């Protein structure tokens, strides 16, 4: 008989107290920037990264420069001071998930993070001494080397950070405490969960695109990464188009229509049924407001300092205004501009599941997940399907999670357990993962460079270092 194989010792979790290599100095103070296309999430790593309260140290800053109707230029966090969004023109430095305009991005970073800029005085995102700070910067998967080089040069040469780690955004989610999210027990060898998670399939659906990234022990499996060029921006644009054809011309009202999308849209779990219900609601003659799929969205009125809001659809009121029957209607009601939204509410986010509706030759998110798994070892399929984590702003669309899990169960192998979970805070989840990585200094040191190393070896070496080639 053959001798039994010795059991492998249990995997030891990384601990925040492990020392950094003595031959290289990485500044202890760590600043994390999740440089999203719509919002920048930024802040210092918390002293207690496992605490949910650490998200309070994160500031969300619009990643845009805006020219208002009165020709005023506002940058980043200054967008909070704008009251009139009519005909506002946006300039975004990020396209398709990648920073392609560092001139504009520098304006936003300077105004938001550094000395001498009024909006940088918030202590959560004020970088007083870059040379004494380690920066963790996220990037989207499959960025071109030239774009990576530009980012490295800006970070190390323009601002001169003392330490720097450029990470794939989805991989940072593996450092969050996700065991409780999936109902798994903690490690038998420790009172804390082992980090990073062994197998995690991250679905990141944000502003400019959606990616599926299999993450194994904190590292992305490159050949399994899949991308869908659909995100919140495209949903907003699609809503603008169909509303402009049917009602008011809203083509130039990106900000307002984004607000409309977030207020009314949902993912249908019975598309045909909801479509029929919306059609029947539009044909009924009611005597007053009714609850149902069809809603009224009252557009904002900057002259009266009124924000947009939703209310139940009132066919009678709509008919009176259309016919000019003003008797019994207040001046406020008469001045309202109202969008009537029916099947638009669920037809727009449906694109994430059936992009062919607008002629895209791409798979929807559930099929994209299976495409990702098809190039990975079969033995890992069940582990990844049991740990599907959804992050990004689109995860907050009502019905999105239920639809994704339902369709994934239908197409996955019957013997596989399918568990789809939304991160506790899907918008800030990647940033929170960065704060937890920052606590494990030895692990952070393995994926980062110092200012001295950059000055000695240059930007080409930095690109290879972050790619794991050196």
From TrEMBL:
Transmembrane segments: none
Biased composition range(s): Low complexity: 1-17
Source organism superkingdom: Eukaryota
Pfam family, one: Actin
Region of interest called Disordered, as start-end residue ranges on this chain: 1-23
Family recorded in the similarity comment: Belongs to the actin family.
Stated name of the protein: Actin-like protein arp6
Organism (species): Penicillium nordicum
Lineage of origin: Eukaryota, Fungi, Dikarya, Ascomycota, Pezizomycotina
